[in-house]
Amino acid sequence: MAPRGSYAKGIAKREEILTTALHVIARNGYRRTSVKELADAVGLSQAGLLHYFSSKEELFQEVLRKRDEVDMAAYGLEVERPIESFVEVIRHNSEVPGLVQLYAQLSTEAADATHPAHAFFVERYVQFRGTFGGMLRDEQQAGRLDPDLDLDRIANLFMAAADGLQTQWMLDPSIDMAEHIEYLWQLVSRNAAG
User: Fold this and answer.
1) Distance between CA 36 and CA 47 in Å, rounded?
2) Chain-centre distance of CA 81, in angstroms?
3) Cα dihedral 49/50/52/55 (nearest 10)
4) Angle at 123 (CA atoms; ends 34, 111), nearest 5 degrees
5) Architecture of the domain delimited by 56-189
6) pLDDT digits (tens, 9 = 90+) for 11-65
7) Res. 184 pLDDT band, cuts 50 70 90
8) CA gap 63, 18 in Å, rounded
9) Tens digits of per-residue pLDDT, 54-87?
């Protein structure tokens, strides 16, 4: 059953806020985007915008959740070409520097267990490791990865590489994040049995 009335309108407005925030932050950068600017972009006051979120931190956390949702819809980890899909997401990140800044800032702050986005990032890392680990297991079962590799560690290393490369790229935009991830994949996959 579809949501009705003001509840459905509230969900639609929240989605509009998140979609608009993705574009504004990607364009202007995290530090140069204010809650007032986001509110203006969707025709609300700051208080009106924060009515849809419990705090500014939750708003930005939900922007990142929306980014993940949009990226999965656009790039996914396709069964036929999972590593290529992952690399496409990394490549796309270089086109949205403001969202990369938001992710880096919020993930660092969320390391504090009392931060409102702490649970989001813990869940996100668990989900990513599970998804990427499943892709690695499929590759290993197909004989494209060494059977002795510890796939949980490999999944962690890819996540660490992607996050670390984003930080390096923000400091030096000449770094090609996607090329580095492709190279890491070549190193991991070159000793496959067969």
Assistant:
1) 9
2) 19
3) 150
4) 60
5) Orthogonal Bundle (1.10)
6) 889 999 999 999 999 888 888 888 899 999 999 999 999 889 888 888 999 999 9
7) very high
8) 5
9) 888 889 999 999 999 998 888 775 556 678 888 9
Helix-, strand-, coil-residue percentages of the chain, each rounded to 5: 70, 0, 30
Cα angle 2, 77, 160 (rounded to 5 degrees) comes to 115
Output the six-digit token pair for 131: 């998804």
How far is residue 94 from each of residues 76, 90, 132, 151, measured CA to CA in Å? 17, 7, 21, 27
Contact criterion met (CB below 8 Å) for 133 and 156: no
For the chain, the structural domain boundaries read 56-189
**Confidence at residue 3, expressed as pLDDT on a 0 to 100 scale:** 54
Structural tokens at position 177: 């994040």
- Kindly report the three-state secondary structure assignment for every residue of 100-163: HHHHHHHHHHCCCCCCCCHHHHHHHHHHHHHHHHHHHHHHHHCCCCCCCCCHHHHHHHHHHHHH
> What is the token pair recorded at 152?
């949980």
CA pair distance 25, 98, nearest whole angstrom: 5
- Opening angle at CA 113, ends 67 and 107, nearest 5: 30
